[in-house]
Design a protein that fits this description.
single chain; 164 residues; alpha/beta; Rossmann fold; 5-stranded parallel β-sheet; 5 strands; 45% helix
């Protein structure tokens, strides 16, 4: 006999989605998601979005740049996946997309019913928490079907571990 979660395509455990980018604050979100997954029997999923290049003068050059950026993104996700594995004992689901980060994030959440929590890191300095958090806690909130956990980027590893 199968449960509703198995037949509907929804994971039987929580999936914590972390957006991997070049910000410092994503590290806090990653650590928190790993600790929560470890303590709740959940899993981590990683999303990296390659933004479109502004360079479109020569198609061959632009294609070379695009391939290089994809290769670098794949390497980044593999490095982060090793960290997740070391912290949780499981390999994360990896999602690599090209486009605008907030649109690709929302589309992934719509397409993947197994994702149950979005974990984002807030900037530790400055006036705003970051463009993605601003959008998702404002106009974009109505497009979400899952809760968001916002982790302050200034927390230490020890403080995050105490929360997890």
């Amino acid at each position: 006999m199968s449960s509703d979660s198995q037949t509907s395509g929804v994971s039987p455990y929580r999936i914590f989605l972390v957006v991997v980018d070049d910000s410092e604050e994503y590290r806090a979100a990653l650590r928190f998601a790993c600790r929560r997954a470890e303590h709740t029997g959940g899993r981590v999923a990683l999303l990296h979005v390659i933004e479109p290049s502004d360079f479109q003068h020569w198609m061959a050059v632009e294609e070379t740049i695009r391939e290089q950026r994809r290769h670098e993104a794949e390497q980044l996700l593999q490095r982060v996946a090793k960290e997740v594995n070391a912290l949780t004992g499981t390999m994360p689901a990896l999602h690599l997309r090209e486009g605008q980060p907030r649109e690709e994030l929302l589309q992934l959440i719509e397409e993947e019913p197994s994702i149950s929590i979005l974990v984002l890191g807030a900037k530790s300095a400055g006036d705003t928490p970051g463009p993605l958090i601003q959008y998702l806690t404002g106009k974009g909130a109505r497009r979400l079907r899952i809760p968001i956990t916002i982790v302050p980027g200034g927390l230490t590893i020890e403080e995050i571990d105490d929360l997890g």
